[in-house]
């Protein structure tokens, strides 16, 4: 009797409402399963108390393997709802989490659709951009921290040297060469300034001679009684103007060469010297820091700081020695280049000026050919029509 009752309950038909309700068949199946679960409790509750429960469970059908058919016998397979899913629904209503096997069987049923994912696709790019921004900020902070520490140490070392409380690394021979270079540069700058002034004055004199020669030539045409005298003077001024333009070409070449030597070659060496002096100051600052830590306590934290200071000291020592070598080499090459350039330029200046004031036009032109000085044609200093646009 018990077997027939349980079999009847397991195969009970549940009509499906199809009066246009918007709920899906799956929702109706879950609701009907919950109602069947309640009816099973009522049926089991009506059994006699004296009946052996173990015998009923053994002799009766397995509820995990039974199914409830909706829509009558012979209906579509989609209407079959396993009783295990009903037990899961009842467990959820009582606050019990369904087992993994039951959940997987429900997920495999036809008509079951997984819940949409709550992750947004645009979360990854935003997280990557935030991480990149944080990385740049951290890098800038580290750079600023290193710069601040280095500036503090160098400033401290500089004041210590000024007030005579700190030691300074000095190469007497190299320092003497640097002082000579700076003094030489000042003298060559004076030569360059005076040569430019001479060029400007001589250019004005040549322009005056040219204007004077044109005036004499005009008067020779309008004054028949003084035609020869005005003509001689006009010819002389034109010759002086021509020789003056030749001398201007030589002086301009002299000025250009001195300018290159002073403002490019010497300036490049002085820039290397400035880098060398900064490296020397940093080297002495980190050397003093290492010496100060070495005379302090030797605990674990102090040993770590000493090791870091030793590494920084070695880095700046290598930099100082490299720049020291660069300065020595550049000073040597600069001296050789200076002698070669000034020998040529001084000889050119002397021969050109002597030939001009001696009135030796051939010697003046020969001097320019000897030093490969090319004269610019009249009007070449003016920009072309294309450059003016």
TrEMBL record:
| Gene3D superfamilies (UniProt xref) | Arfaptin homology (AH) domain/BAR domain
Q: Where is the composition biased (Polar residues)?
A: 94-107
Q: What are the record's GO terms for cellular component? A: cytosol; Golgi membrane; trans-Golgi network membrane
| One term of GO molecular function | protein domain specific binding
Decide whether keyword Membrane is in the record: yes
Q: Does the keyword Hydrolase apply?
A: no
Ranges for domain AH: 169-369
Q: Which SMART domains match?
A: Arfaptin
Q: Which UniProt keywords apply?
A: Coiled coil, Golgi apparatus, Membrane, Phosphoprotein
Chain spans, region Disordered: 1-33, 91-131
Its domain of life reads: Eukaryota
Give start-end positions of Low complexity composition bias: 114-130
Coiled-coil features, chain-numbered ranges: 306-337
Primary place of residence?
A: Golgi
InterPro entries, alphabetized: AH/BAR_dom_sf, AH_dom, Arfaptin_fam
Compartment list: Golgi apparatus membrane; Golgi apparatus, trans-Golgi network
Q: Name one Pfam family in it.
A: Arfaptin
Cross-referenced SUPFAM superfamilies: BAR/IMD domain-like (SSF103657)
Any one Gene Ontology biological process term? regulation of Arp2/3 complex-mediated actin nucleation
Which CDD domains does the entry mention? BAR_Arfaptin
Q: What is this protein called?
A: ADP-ribosylation factor interacting protein 2a
Q: Which organism is it from?
A: Cyprinus carpio
């Amino acid at each position: 009797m018990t077997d027939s009752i349980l079999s009847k309950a397991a195969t009970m038909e549940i009509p499906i409402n199809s009066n246009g309700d918007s709920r899906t068949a799956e929702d109706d199946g879950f609701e009907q399963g919950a109602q069947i679960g309640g009816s099973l409790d009522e049926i089991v509750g009506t059994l006699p108390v004296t009946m052996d429960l173990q015998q009923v469970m053994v002799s009766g059908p397995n509820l995990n393997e039974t199914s409830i058919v909706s829509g009558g016998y012979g209906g579509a397979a989609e209407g079959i709802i396993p009783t295990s899913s009903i037990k899961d629904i009842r467990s959820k209503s009582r606050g019990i989490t369904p087992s993994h096997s039951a959940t997987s069987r429900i997920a495999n049923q036809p008509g079951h659709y997984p819940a949409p994912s709550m992750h947004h696709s645009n979360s990854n790019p935003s997280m990557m951009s935030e991480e990149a921004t944080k990385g740049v900020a951290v890098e800038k902070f580290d750079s600023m921290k290193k710069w601040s520490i280095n500036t503090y140490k160098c400033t401290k070392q500089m004041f210590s040297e000024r007030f005579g409380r700190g030691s300074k690394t000095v190469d007497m021979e190299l320092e003497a060469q640097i002082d000579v270079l700076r003094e030489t540069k000042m003298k060559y700058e004076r030569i360059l300034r005076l040569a430019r002034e001479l060029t400007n004055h001589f250019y004005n004199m040549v322009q005056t001679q040219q204007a004077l020669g044109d005036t004499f030539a005009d008067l020779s045409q309008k004054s028949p009684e003084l035609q020869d005298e005005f003509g001689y003077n006009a010819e002389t001024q034109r010759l002086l103007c021509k020789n003056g333009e030749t001398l201007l070409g030589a002086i301009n070449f002299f000025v250009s060469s001195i300018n290159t030597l002073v403002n490019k070659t010497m300036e490049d060496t002085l820039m290397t010297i400035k880098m060398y002096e900064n490296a020397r100051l940093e080297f002495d600052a980190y050397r003093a820091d290492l010496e100060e830590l070495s005379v302090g306590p030797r605990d674990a934290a102090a040993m770590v700081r000493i090791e870091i200071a030793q590494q920084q000291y070695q880095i700046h020592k290598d930099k100082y020695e490299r720049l020291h070598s660069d300065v020595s080499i550049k000073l040597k090459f600069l001296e050789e280049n200076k002698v070669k350039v000034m020998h040529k330029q001084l000889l050119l200046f002397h021969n050109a000026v002597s030939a001009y004031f001696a009135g030796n036009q051939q010697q003046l032109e020969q001097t320019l050919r000897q030093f490969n000085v090319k004269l610019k044609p009249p009007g070449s200093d003016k920009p072309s029509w294309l450059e003016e646009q």
